[in-house]
Amino acid sequence: MQFTPTTLARSALLGALLAPLLAHATNGYFSHGYGAKAQGIAGVGIALPQDALAAATNPAGTALVADRSDLGVSLFLPSRGASIGGNTFGADANYSGDDTRSFVIPDFGYIRQLNANTGIGIAIYGNGGLNTDYQNNPFARFGGTGPTGVNLEQLFITPSVAYRVNDAHTLGVALNIAYQRFEAKGVGFFSGFSAAPGNVSNQGVDSSTGAGVRLGWTGKVAPTVTLGATWASKISGGFDKYKGLFANGGNFDIPENYGVGIAVQANPQWTLAADLQTIRYSQTPSVGNPVSQLFANGQPLGSNNGPGFGWKDVTVLKLGASHQYSKDLTLRAGISVANQPVPDSETFFNILAPGVIQKHLTVGTTWTLAGGELTGFYARAFGQTVNGSGSIPAGFPPAGFGGGNANVRLEENIIGVSYGWKF
User: What gap in Å lies between CA 237 and CA 39, rounded to an integer?
Assistant: First the structure.
């Protein structure tokens, strides 16, 4: 396989074909890691490139991974839902958002070393997403009709190039081409509180394409210690069909994110690594602005800098270990911990988007075969519930919402496998 315009075009076509399969939420709505090896070690990868998906985490890794291609697929099994309590309109009940129970998440990566110092590659993967599917509408008592939920999918196509400045330091740059899809249903009752009431709910699937950059560095600061750093710009996007739901007339940017990492070769068999990543959800008004702007001040949905889901920025600490058990077998494990993005005052609107996961535990393994590698992983995102506090207004016009609180929950299991070809 040669890295040519034809290869790039085929990769882009593959990405387009895979896009409808993507929907997941882990750290907020970003994936906990990219590539099967990283996902088996809690998503660690800023200073520890391992396969052809390395550029998804840090493009400097493109010059540090030998010629190879990786094709993987994951089965994503979320359990999400909500409950309402203390509501005078009789909405108190438990609601399951699991009418759609499983999702397939594919990924693909390719890296070629042009010479001793320069590597190029391309990675195709699901950056993130979020889905809820309530057959029994939690908003029915407030005027919602039919099944309700949202579906957000984000596909990234990331060509990259990296250069080894010297034996210690490597720099990389990648272009993040982002394709987003979104659909909302069953929330038409919010049309009365929107700047564009005809574009709030049940408008079918809308899509958006944008681009940004990711920069990366790795440096070997001691014989057994490697550091890394990466930064990705915000990517502009929006959904015109839902300009009455999202702030700024349907704006939905993918937020800036950045991180630092360390990898320590404790001995020939053991590697210990850690990443610290921040995702700036508060930069995107549709995600970060509080819905209290609507409930307390009457500012309509879809307006300039209008109400959103109230998410805070997320900072994730990822810790992992890799053990070369034998010449042909590598074992991995990791844990990650994040702060809570969803405040307890914002749970009513987040019935649609309960991205409340904070802890992951992962295990993984790689078997070296003749001419390639087979990698598998399992990730457990522990169940998390955010109980509302003053989250449902009592007297918003004209009849109010009846007060009380919404509580939202999410837990996940992810199983994945990938095959890597070495050239």
Answer: 27
- 357/367 Cα distance (integer angstroms): 30
Task: Pull the structure tokens for residue 264.
Answer: 């320590």
For the chain, which ranges sit under pLDDT 70?
Answer: 1-25, 396-399
Specify the CATH architecture of the domain 5-422.
Answer: Beta Barrel (2.40)
Residue 268 DSSP code: S
| Chain-centroid distance, C-alpha 386 | 19
Q: How far apart are CA 132 and CA 158, in angstroms?
A: 28
For tokens 């809690």, what's the residue? 42
Q: Alpha-carbon distance 129 to 340, whole Å?
A: 17
pLDDT tens profile 337-353? 999 999 999 999 999 99
| Residue extents of the structural domains in the chain | 5-422
Backbone angles phi, psi at 190, to 5 degrees: -75, -5
402: left (phi over 0), alpha (psi -120 to 50) or beta: left
Which is nearest to 270 in space by CA: 224, 301, 338, 235?
Answer: 224
Query: Cβ distance 357 to 337 under 8 Å?
Result: no
**pTM given for the model:** 0.93
Instruction: Provide the H-helix boundaries in 275-334.
Output: 285-288, 292-295
